[in-house]
Amino acid sequence: MGKYIGRRLLQLIPIVFGVTFISFLLMHLAVTDTVDVLYEQQSGANAAAAAAKRAALGLDQGFFTQYCHWLWQVLHGDMGQSFVTSLPVSTTMLSKLPATLELMLLALFLTLLISLPLGTLAAIRKGSIWDQLARLLSFTGNALPDFLFALILLYFFAVKWHFFSFLTPTADRSPLLPALPLAFAMTAKYLRQIRALLLDELSKEYVQALLCRGLPYHYVLTHYVFRAVAAPLLALLALSAASLLGGSAIVETIFLWDGVGKLAVDAIMLRDYPIIQAYMIWMSALYVLFNLAADIICAYVDPRLTLRKKED
Amino acid sequence: MKLKQLLALPVALLLVFSLNGCGTVTAPAATGKVFHYGTMAYGPAMQNASTDPHDTYCGWSTVRYGVGETLFKFDDQMGLRPWLARSYEQVDDYTIKIKLRDDVVFSNGKKMTGEAVKACLEDLLARNDRAPHDLKIDAMTADGQTLTIRSHEKMPDFINYLADPYSAIIDVDAGIHDRIAIGTGPYKAVRVDDQGLHLVKNENYWGPVKPKLDEVLVYSIPDGNTLTLAMQSGELDAVQGLPYASLPAFEKNGAYRILSSPTSRVYQAAMNYDTPALQDQRVRQAICLAIDKDNFVSVLLRGNGLVAAGPFPDTFPFGQGVQGPAYDLERAKELLREAGYTHTDRDGYVTKDGQPLTLRWLTYTSRQELPLLAEYAQASLKKAGIKVDVNATDNYKDFLKRGAYDIYAQAIVTAPTGDPGYYFMSKIYSGQPYNNGHYSSPVSDALIDRLNNTFDRQERFRLAREIGQQIVNDDAVFYASFLKMSVVMKKNVTGFAPHPCDYYEITPELDIH
């Protein structure tokens, strides 16, 4: 297992290298750069000022020179400075990550808290009121855009009932309200997935055989069926977790949540390359690590996966 | 029992998250009179999330929020008045002598002297990317409260640049710590971050009117809907930048007051002279005549604008008297016929040599008025037989660089320094990189050259009006309207009003009762 983890972690190096190279290339394929964006936004500046700014940021260099310079900096532990704020990229990212982590972990937790029991109920009580409720939630969650749900929540919780304050700094504020629209949207997807996975598993012959031998239904469900569906569910969860930890610009903007999602979108709009590159590293690492974690957990939960690999 | 324990864990975790801050509407600890202000105009994306005036566009925050002041300032008619300076004297075309006030102190109690101002301006030239190219300072000497500045080019609008927010005077010896600069304004910053500013009263304020509030909290709220809800929740005392659609909700509510001021941010559409069809002035004129500006402002902008005749509002001394074309659809059709567009295709668009007159209208969406203008122009020009393909994209600069547009509509502040020279040099003069229409007129160029060498303010204003009229006569740029900036405040707020130059928001007069 140790070797396996080591090998997977080593894969992170070419992935990060490839992703950052491609993102750097894509950014430079655009005709405009940071200086164009910054000055145009503020009524323009004279050509000499723009040229000086471009030189100061190293944007007058060739593409490969710029990329190599950035890579060299990163390899020395320096993520550079934001083109817009001149603040160190690592400080900026680190200052926003805790808020995003807090928000997204809660959203993930709420998703599981709602979708696991309700999805299970919808599957084992197929056609019941629980199944109808799960279907209604799922359709509504998929149809309702998260920004609209977020605004509805704000209207009631902030304007009508004063449970939410706009003025409290992110660090002192509960992430519950901003997490709800994220969790709602994700729950809508998970409900259907969990229901479908469980129904598929429950219809298998081994389940019928176990029940015929007199094992209690809940015992079969918790000791056999849940273990069997754990692998695909964890794989799904790993992707969702990585995607969530990338932040959500819309929800962060509406709830004034100072996270990395908005930071990334602003950086893309302003062509703030150092921030975008740091964000790409963060996202690559997240996807690789979460998938690795899911694989490891799956191996423990469902030993068939390890056995199959050995047979192969 | 096991199941209960299993369920207890997530419920406990949820409670921890829920009880942490939610349900307790608490503003940051503050004492005395506290003003809560929400704005869309602050934040990293606006390049102003600091009070260090020498850093990019952060000077706007320094001056807007009452942390710093400039040597000169604009009055409500955009006339220049001394602020930290007492007076100035134009010694020759290159030299200016500024007498500073003797009673100004920084918020740390240190006196503002000629040496301190000189050190500040030197720091500005060393660190700001635009200032050296704008100010063109060659040498500075300080003697007591007198500062003499020599430029290496003729600078008739030099004083205007000293009213630009980047020229806010700060104590450079005190340094910049955590984005906090030491200025001379009525308030001093104690916290500055991406989310906003926390300001407290400057007990050492030198001005005749002392700050009335104990604390000011500025919140960056970049989403218009959130800003509206935050104001409706009653937590904010005033907001700036509300979407037009939200204003009626406050107009009807007696608890709020709305104040507006026209600014020099114009919504304009530059005709691309590289487009063959637009090289014919009759076509350009037809476009200008076929769009009803009054209707655009009254209906689509819901009255939150000022119809534009030229590049500057007529509330500015250099914007008065310019005559723009009045809406005349029939005359527009007639002009198109004169230009050879004598037939129409099955869709009703005019054609010449079998080709319909199709124009690519490039604009962007970050200003809510621009997509509206594009759609309105599309519908209006269709009536005249001109087909408009709207390209409203935030990637518009790529299209600009490739020249893939016939008309480029944008929102631009035409008098950021309270002087007309900047706009003409940047947007109108031949060959300039921001002259997106590639307009080139020997008449306009000659007038701009004269303007650049004219020091007399009245003569500068007269020349500016003449240039503005020339642009309109050439139908080089279609000026639709000016932004009317509105602020919404609670009824108990006084001393708070929008300013035409958008520089001054938090002032010593601001109070809540």
Automatic annotation (TrEMBL), chain A:
**Cited Pfam families:** BPD_transp_1 (PF00528), BPD_transp_1_N (PF19300)
Q: Which UniProt keywords apply?
A: Cell membrane, Membrane, Transmembrane, Transmembrane helix, Transport
- InterPro entries reported in the protein's UniProt record: BPD_transp_1_N (IPR045621), MetI-like (IPR000515), MetI-like_sf (IPR035906)
- All copies of domain ABC transmembrane type-1, residue ranges: 97-294
Q: Which Gene3D superfamilies match?
A: MetI-like
User: Which subcellular locations apply to this protein?
Assistant: Cell membrane
SUPFAM superfamilies from the UniProt entry: MetI-like
Q: How does it sit in the membrane?
A: Multi-pass membrane protein
Tell me where the transmembrane regions lie: 12-31, 103-124, 136-158, 233-257, 277-301
Q: Which family does it belong to?
A: Belongs to the binding-protein-dependent transport system permease family.
Protein name per Swiss-Prot or TrEMBL: ABC transporter permease
UniProtKB/TrEMBL annotation, chain B:
Source organism, top-level taxon: Bacteria
**Key word Signal present in the record?**
yes
Residues of the signal peptide: 1-29
Q: Which regions span the lipid bilayer?
A: none
Q: Which residues form the Solute-binding protein family domain?
A: 80-426
Q: Which UniProt keywords apply?
A: Signal
Protein name, entry field: ABC transporter substrate-binding protein
UniProt source species:
Megasphaera hominis
